[in-house]
């Protein structure tokens, strides 16, 4: 122990120096005295003993629970082993059945690896000719009537013949296959409408799924030329014809088209994110992963324009800003209507455009003449703007975009990359514009 001597007091040889204790030593002594009191206190001792007993009980319970977990784990593993054995037996039986069905003794259909070119073409044409002549069956299976399908074949047949099986333009004369453009188009539309799995389509048609993917890609690249011709922004005179279709005089008189966005359900992103960040393909509004696409529609349901896909997190307003939709209506005597997710005219904008969107519920009061006019305005706008929702409903009747998009991978480029979502959506828009002539909205 070290002691400190006061500097003020002088020490003589006969007298001892006055010793003072430090503050640390005083604290230590206080703690020691407090500990002695606690040890002597019977209440505190009882509490300690009880806490020790509880701790021992918890340990014993944990040990017993671990043993029970091990027992349950062993039981589950035994059950899984039994299930796996049953599944293996079922798979073997299923494989035997498939071999029996596709054996050359029962039918003259085999997989693509064992077939000649003529055999798989014959099996595919026989599958198509069975279903293409009936009008009702044709509309259910491929989404087009027989006459509409024949018209589409005549329009795209020239583009199909100019392409190779790699979907590139022909540079020289190549030996033609016996597969006709009509059969290739029908099976592609059937795949887009019903969206079956590759194995089920292989079983029904007798053609390998890789060969079918090449057919789909070639047909879609040929249909892209028709999309470029038909899916165009109309002239001003064509849009001016729709002025006054809602009301002859009023705020909605000059509205000629409607805009809205839809989320297509797809897989989540494969990239890893930081703990604070989120998946950009998750839409918080729709509570699902996918992509967002914005469309502009005229009053009869014809699609005038569609955007490229963006991650589901992006809003409709950000897509319209990216594509500069506002500039197409600047200085025009007609306008556009949309829902509350858009804001075409901001306060800082010097040049205003003709646009309409519904009033918010905060702006509408219960008893007021002005709020009654606002309610009537919202009703008129929503009753006319519902055409966009009906168009999306018809587009999503094609199961390739209406359900879960299995082949769409935003971060992975597959080979062959026959699932180009922008191209598929544009093809469906052109098919919809042709279909509303015979089946109006």
Offer a few descriptive terms.
single chain, alpha+beta, seven-stranded mixed β-sheet, 14 helices
Describe this structure in words.
The longest helix has 60 residues, at 42-101. α6 (181-194) packs across α8 and α8 (209-230) packs across α14 (421-438). The relative contact order is 0.09. The protein has helices at 23-40, 42-101, 117-131, 135-142, 146-161, 181-194, 198-205, 209-230, 236-240, 316-323, 325-328, 369-395, 399-402, 421-438; strands at 4-5, 19-20, 255-265, 282-283, 288-297, 303-306, 310-311, 335-337, 355-356. It is an alpha+beta fold. The protein has 3 domains: 23-101; 112-230, no CATH class; 236-421, no CATH class. It contains 14 helices and 9 strands. The model is unreliable at 1-12 and 101-115 (pLDDT under 50). β4 (282-283) and β5 form a beta hairpin. Strands 3, 4, 5, 6, 7, 8 and 9 form a 7-stranded mixed sheet that branches. The chain starts with a strand and ends with a helix.
Q: Output the structural class.
A: alpha+beta
Radius of gyration: 38 Å
Shape: flat
Poorly predicted residue ranges: 1-12, 101-115
State the helix count: 14
Number of DSSP strand runs: 9
Q: What's the rounded overall pLDDT mean?
A: 79
Work out the count of structural domains.
3
- Termini Cα gap: 99 Å
Task: Work out the helicity level.
Answer: 40-55%
The succession of helices and strands, N to C, reads: EEHHHHHHHHHEEEEEHHEEHHH
User: How is the main sheet built?
Assistant: 7 strands, mixed
- Percentage beta strand: 5-15%
């Amino acid at each position: 122990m070290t002691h400190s001597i006061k500097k003020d007091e002088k020490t003589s040889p006969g007298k001892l120096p006055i010793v003072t204790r430090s503050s640390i030593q005083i604290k230590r002594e206080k703690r020691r005295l407090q500990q002695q009191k606690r040890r002597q206190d019977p209440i505190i001792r009882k509490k300690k003993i009880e806490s020790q007993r509880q701790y021992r009980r918890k340990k014993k319970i944990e040990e017993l629970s671990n043993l029970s977990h091990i027992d349950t784990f062993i039981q589950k593993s035994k059950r899984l082993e039994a299930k796996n054995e049953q599944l293996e037996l079922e798979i073997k039986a299923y494989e035997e059945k498939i071999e029996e069905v596709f054996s050359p003794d029962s039918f003259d259909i085999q997989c693509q690896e064992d077939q000649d070119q003529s055999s798989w073409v014959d099996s595919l044409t026989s599958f198509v000719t069975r279903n293409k002549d009936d009008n009702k069956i044709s509309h259910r299976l491929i989404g087009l009537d027989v006459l509409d399908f024949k018209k589409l074949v005549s329009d795209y047949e020239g583009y199909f013949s100019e392409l190779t099986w790699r979907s590139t333009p022909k540079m020289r004369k190549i030996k033609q296959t016996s597969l006709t453009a009509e059969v290739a188009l029908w099976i592609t539309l059937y795949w887009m409408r019903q969206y079956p799995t590759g194995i089920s389509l292989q079983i029904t048609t007798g053609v390998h799924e890789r060969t079918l993917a090449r057919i789909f890609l070639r047909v879609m690249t040929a249909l892209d030329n028709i999309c470029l011709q038909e899916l165009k922004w109309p002239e001003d005179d064509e849009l001016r014809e729709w002025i006054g279709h809602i009301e002859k005089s009023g705020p909605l008189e000059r509205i000629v088209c409607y805009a809205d966005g839809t989320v297509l359900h797809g897989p989540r992103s494969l990239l890893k994110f930081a703990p604070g960040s989120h998946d950009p393909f998750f839409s918080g509004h729709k509570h699902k992963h996918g992509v967002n696409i914005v469309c502009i529609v005229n009053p009869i349901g014809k699609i005038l324009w569609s955007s490229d896909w963006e991650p589901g997190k992006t809003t409709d307003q950000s897509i319209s800003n990216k594509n500069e939709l506002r500039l197409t209506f600047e200085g025009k005597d007609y306008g556009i209507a949309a829902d509350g997710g858009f804001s075409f005219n901001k306060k800082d904008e010097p040049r205003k455009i003709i646009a309409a969107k519904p009033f918010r519920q905060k702006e509408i009061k219960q008893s007021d003449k002005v709020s009654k006019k606002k309610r009537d305005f919202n009703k008129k706008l929503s009753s006319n703007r519902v055409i966009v929702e009906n168009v999306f409903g018809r587009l999503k009747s094609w199961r390739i975009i209406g359900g879960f998009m299995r082949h769409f991978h935003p971060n992975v480029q597959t080979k062959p990359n026959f699932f180009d979502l922008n191209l598929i959506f544009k093809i469906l828009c052109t098919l919809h514009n042709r279909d509303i002539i015979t089946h109006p909205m």
